[in-house]
Design goal:
By secondary structure, this protein is α/β, with parallel strands linked by helices. The protein has 12 helices and 12 strands. Helix 4 runs parallel beside helix 5. Bound molecules: nicotinamide-adenine-dinucleotide and thymidine-5'-diphosphate (TYD).
C-alpha cells in the first residue's frame, strides 16, 4: 500500500536510522524528512539514501506553524513519526526554554496540523510520537518502568518530553486523533552526537582527553542499539494499536563506570594501545544537577504483543559502534569543530 510518511528529526541520531530503514524497506512509501538541522542534525548521516526516489528532505522548524501546515497541505502525510526534539539533559539544565520550544510547542504544532488536515474517522492516519523512558523519573536499586508507571520527570528535558506525551494523549482523548507513543531507554550506535556518554567518551579516548565521569559513576542506564530501536519503531508503526503506549528497552543495564571500563578496553584493543591506557583518562567530576539514579525498562508488552526483541548483545553493539566512529573520523571531526568547542568549554571546564 502506498503511504506518505512524515518523519520529523530525520537528520538526527535515531531519526536518520529510522529514515534509512523506511526508505530502503518500503520503496512504495514516500518518506518526507522534516528537520531544521540544529547542531544535532546532520545531512551527512543520510548520504547513502539521499538520492532515492522515495525520499525527500525539507528544512523546516516544527515550531513554525505556517511551515508545518504548509507541509501537511502540500504532501498530505498519512503517518507522522515524530522524533524531532532537543534531546540532551545537560543542555536542558542550561537552557530549559529551548526544550519547551521544540519539544512542547513543536509537538503541539504537529498535532494541530494533523487535527486540521486529517478527516474522521482517520482511516489510515497515525500520529506516532517517539518518547523516552526518562518521563517515568528515576528508579531505586529495584524495579522496572512499565507502561503503567506514573510520570515523574525530574530534568527539564524529561519534563518537556512528558509534557509532549501528555499533549499527544490529550489530542487522542479530546479529538479522537489516532496516536501511539513509545518510550525507549538510552540508545547508542553510529551517528550519535558526541555530547552523549558513549560517543563523547569514544571521541575523548581517540584524542587522549580526560573522560569526565559524573559523580561516582554509580548511575545505571539501560542501553539499546539504535538499529534495534528503529526496527521496533517500524514494527509499532505497522502493528501497534492506536491509543496504546509501548516501552522499548534492551534488558541491558549498566552502571556508568562499568560501561566506561568496558568501552576503554574495547578502545585500547581497537586502537592498538596498551591495555589500561584509556582507563587512565577517567576523571570523576562534579555530578549532574538532579542526576537520575537508574532507568530500566520492562519491554514485555512489546515482546508479547508484537514479538519484538533486541537483536544484538551489548558487547557486539559496542564493538560495532566503536568501529563506526573509528572509520568515520571525518564525521567526528566535522561535528566537533566550531560551536562544539564552546559547548565543551561551558559544560566541562567549569566542573
Ligand atoms: P538528536 O538530538 O540526535 O536529533 C534530534 C533531531 O531533531 C536533529 O536532527 C535536529 O536537527 C532536529 N530538531 C531539533 N529541533 C528541531 C525543530 N525545532 N524543528 C525541526 N527539527 C528539529 O536526538 P535523538 O537522540 O536522535 O532522539 C530522537 C528522539 O528520540 C527524541 O524525541 C528523543 O527524545 C527520543 N529518544 C532518544 C533517546 C536516546 O537515547 N537518544 C532515547 C529515547 C528516546
Ligand atoms: P547521557 O548520554 O547524557 O544520557 P542520559 O542522561 O539521557 O541518560 O548520559 C548517560 C549517563 O552518563 C548519565 O548517567 C550521565 C553520565 N555522563 C557522564 O558521567 N559524563 C558525561 O560526560 C556525560 C555526557 C554523561
Amino acid at each position: 500500500m502506498k503511504k506518505t510518511i512524515l518523519i520529523t528529526g530525520g537528520a538526527g541520531f535515531i531519526g536518520s536510522h529510522v529514515v534509512r530503514l523506511m526508505v530502503n524497506k518500503y520503496p512504495d512509501y514516500r518518506i518526507i524528512n522534516v528537520d531544521n538541522l540544529t547542531y544535532a542534525g546532520n545531512l551527512e548521516n543520510l548520504t547513502d539514501i539521499e538520492n532515492k526516489s522515495n525520499y525527500q528532505f525539507i528544512k523546516a522548524d516544527i515550531v513554525d506553524s505556517e511551515a508545518v501546515f504548509g507541509i501537511f497541505e502540500k504532501y498530505g502525510p498519512d503517518v507522522v513519526m515524530h522524533l524531532a526534539a532537543e534531546s540532551h539533559v545537560d543542555r536542558s539544565i542550561s537552557n530549559p526554554l529551548d526544550f519547551v520550544r521544540t519539544n512542547v510547542t513543536g509537538t503541539v504544532n504537529l498535532l494541530n496540523a494533523a487535527k486540521h488536515f486529517w478527516e474522521k474517522p482517520f482511516e489510515g492516519s497515525l500520529f506516532y510520537h517517539i518518547s523516552t523512558d526518562e518521563v517515568y523519573g528515576s528508579l531505586g536499586e529495584e524495579g522496572l518502568f512499565t507502561e503503567e508507571t506514573p510520570y515523574d520527570p525530574r530534568s527539564p528535558y524529561s519534563a518537556s518530553k512528558a509534557a509532549s506525551d501528555h499533549f499527544v494523549r490529550a489530542y487522542h482523548h479530546t479529538y479522537g486523533l489516532p496516536v501511539i507513543i513509545s518510550n525507549c531507554s538510552n540508545n547508542y550506535g553510529p551517528n550519535q552526537f558526541p555530547e552523549k556518554l558513549i560517543p563523547l567518551f569514544i571521541h575523548n579516548i581517540i584524542q587522549k582527553k580526560p573522560l569526565p565521569v559524573y559523580g561516582k559513576g554509580e548511575n545505571v542506564r539501560d542501553w539499546l542499539y539504535v538499529e534495534d530501536h528503529a526496527e521496533a519503531i517500524d514494527l509499532i508503526m505497522h502493528k501497534g494499536k492506536t491509543g496504546e503506549t509501548y516501552n522499548i528497552g534492551g534488558h541491558n543495564e549498566w552502571k556508568n563506570i562499568e560501561l566506561i571500563r568496558l568501552l576503554c578496553k574495547v578502545m585500547d584493543k581497537k586502537l592498538g594501545r596498551e591495555a589500561g591506557t584509556s582507563e587512565g583518562l577517567i576523571q570523576f567530576v562534579k555530578d549532574r544537577a538532579g542526576h537520575d539514579l537508574r532507568y530500566a525498562i520492562d519491554a514485555a508488552k512489546l515482546q508479547k504483543e508484537l514479538g519484538w526483541k533486541p537483536s544484538l548483545d551489548f558487547e557486539q553493539g559496542l564493538e560495532k559502534t566503536v568501529e563506526w566512529y573509528l572509520s568515520n573520523k571525518d564525521w567526528l571531526d566535522s561535528v566537533t569543530s566550531g560551536d562544539y568547542l564552546n559547548y565543551y568549554r561551558e559544560q566541562y571546564e567549569k566542573r
